[in-house]
Amino acid sequence: MPVPAVALAGAGFATVVTSWVTYMATVPSGKVPLRPYRHFAVQAVGAGLAITGIATGATAGGALLPTLVAAPALTLAGLFGWLYSQRATPVGRLQVAIGDAVRPFTALTPEGDTFDVASLRGRRVLLKFFRGHW
Amino acid sequence: MRRFETISPKLAEYGVEVVALSKDTPQDAALQRTRDKLTFQLLSDPKLEVIKDYGVEHHKAVEFSTGRFTVMGLPLALVPSFKSMAIPTTLLIDEHGAIQWIDQSEDYRIRSAEDRVLSEVQRVFDRV
Hints:
The structure holds 2 protein chains of 2 kinds. Chain A is mainly alpha-helical. Chain A is built from 3 helices and 3 strands. Chain A has a two-stranded antiparallel ribbon with strand order 1-2. Chain A is elongated, with a radius of gyration of 24 Å. Chain B is of the alpha+beta class. Chain B has a domain at 2-55 and 87-119: 3-Layer(aba) Sandwich (Glutaredoxin). Chain B is built from 4 helices and 8 strands; from the N terminus they run H-E-H-E-H-E-E-E-E-E-E-H. At the A-B interface, strand 3 of A face helix 1, strand 1, helix 2, strand 2 and helix 3 of B. Strand 3 of chain A pairs parallel with strand 1 (16-22) of chain B, so a sheet runs across the interface.
């Protein structure tokens, strides 16, 4: 078994996963870095280690095992870059403007009851549309 | 959403309540409320009726989901998929039901910043 090659690929995988975990940990608290350069650098190091692992295996001991370990690392690193490229939101076709009255609507409460926005009359409200629980 | 929890005492000084709406089901909203210890009103619009009516639908947005690993019953975000959901949008509504401020995020990862929200609240409303 090409131990050094697999170890290199494994180190690459661990590096990429560590970067992912630390990045995702910022999501619930809303502290996502605007420009995650540090994460990009760490991901690149991880991908580099993974590729070095494959190359080392190819010259001594076989490339199959290190490739199996390196592939998920490279996939995850690529996914990180791709997701960053998807960060822009579409402008949407906003149907309300400043000065407009709030558009009447009903929605469900966490208890499953119907909530009517009319019940907020007479109160100041910060209405937040958000993407969802994650 | 936890960040809105942290600024809600300051918002309360201006008599402003937070109401947050997403495509989550009431069940998911209830779980999130528990997980993130939220005290403000969460609303569910699973059919995106309100989101579409306000024109804040993001078609085929990237969402992470998996059923395998969960944190307090909510799926741990691991696998990306495409789903329609709300474009992060903040509306400030006065006591007469009129919209006073609209803020949309250009980068879905970054939500309306607390300081921006607070300065707008201070601009629009008097302290109560």
